[in-house]
């Protein structure tokens, strides 16, 4: 979300964001309330629940928020009531909050532009069709756009980097090549076009890169860093792992 901001806007956010400490049982946001702040969780855990129907006696548990996650932006972006309730579930937690006026004047425009840019693309990616729209918007917030020229290596076989990323192609074509035996030339094993993805294997299984991915034209990709990938895409491991069967044919 903050990558869409210029340096001047980032400085303004740093000056306006407020550090808060909460204890177990404190209610951070309540379903149905007006949105007043955007939050980033620094430490601790939050339980997210929602009353699916007005007559429900109990709330339905949705997820546990972990450090590094943000929430509360939808009510501010769309001037809508809070969609869920979040309560501190750990002994203590630390948050950063940004009030509505600053959020709207600086972040809202940048985020809306970014989400609109990627919304149509993400809906067309086959593996993301099982995601809810809300989940795709969270994914769009974390994407970083990168460009490569013909012949550039996006990924190199054997690399193992803690900062490695998962990629989805927006424009252009790529090929995957693999060295089957040491000292022999790499062989082409797969082609990629817009909507295809790669790089998931090493992130899911913490393994070195299985192949080279080489741009065959000017290529535009969006990438997701390791921590964001595991948080947002990890539950889709079974679907994401299907590419591994392709690699096994040549190993």
Features:
single chain, 251 residues, alpha+beta, Jelly Rolls, 2 domains, four-stranded antiparallel beta sheet, 16 strands, 29% helix, elongated
Topology:
Blueprint: H1 7-16, E1 18-23, E2 27-29, E3 37-43, E4 46-50, E5 60-65, E6 70-71, H2 73-77, E7 85-88, E8 92-99, H3 100-124, H4 133-142, E9 144-148, E10 153-155, E11 165-171, E12 174-178, E13 187-192, E14 197-198, H5 200-205, E15 212-215, E16 219-225, H6 226-232, H7 237-240, H8 243-248
Antiparallel strand pairs: 1-8, 2-7, 3-6, 3-8, 4-5, 4-7, 9-16, 10-15, 11-14, 11-16, 12-13, 12-15
Provide an overview of this structure:
The chain is α+β, with helices and mostly antiparallel strands and 251 residues long. The protein folds into two domains: 2-107, Jelly Rolls; 143-248, Jelly Rolls (Sandwich), CATH 2.60.120.10. 29% of the residues lie in helices and 32% in strands. It is built from eight helices and 16 strands. The chain has a four-stranded antiparallel sheet with strand order 1-8-3-6. The protein is elongated, with a radius of gyration of 21 Å. The two termini are 39 Å apart.
Strand content: 25-35%
What is the CATH first-level class name of the largest domain?
Mainly Beta
Kindly report the name of the CATH homologous superfamily of the largest domain.
Answer: Jelly Rolls
Structure classification:
alpha+beta
**CATH fold type of the largest domain:** Jelly Rolls
**Largest sheet, if any?**
4 strands, antiparallel
Coarse shape: elongated
Count of discrete domains: 2
CATH-defined architecture of the largest domain: Sandwich
The CA-CA distance between the termini, in Å, is 39 Å
Q: Let me know the average pLDDT.
A: 85
Give the strand line-up of the largest sheet.
Answer: 1-8-3-6
Total count of helical runs of at least 4 residues: 8
- Return residue spans where pLDDT drops below 50 for at least 5 consecutive residues: none
Instruction: Report helical residue fraction.
Output: 25-40%
DSSP E strands, number = 16
SSE ordering: HEEEEEEHEEHHEEEEEEHEEHHH
